[in-house]
Write a structure and sequence with these properties.
It is built from three helices and no strands. The protein is mostly helical. It has one domain.
Length: 76
């Protein structure tokens, strides 16, 4: 049925736009993240927002992110 195919196409396009929106937002957050400022007072809040956006993006792709960082990777 051509009508149902059009609806399916519209849903797929909307889903793609949603995924791109998550990705664009995530990239913007990462680009604005104050990597060098260790005294940044909202560091943990912003990091939590980045993690949340990453989880949203991964969920939209139906993948499970691994957000655990080893002591070696963190530089500790």
């Amino acid at each position: 049925d051509p009508g149902s195919q059009a609806v399916l196409d519209a849903i797929m396009k909307a889903d793609d736009r949603r995924k791109m929106s998550f990705l664009e937002s995530l990239i913007e957050m990462i680009q604005k993240f104050p990597y060098e400022d260790r005294a940044y007072d909202k560091l943990h809040e912003d990091l939590d927002r980045v993690r949340g956006k990453l989880k949203q993006f991964c969920s939209s792709l139906k993948i499970q992110p691994d957000l655990e960082i080893s002591a070696e990777a963190s530089g500790l």
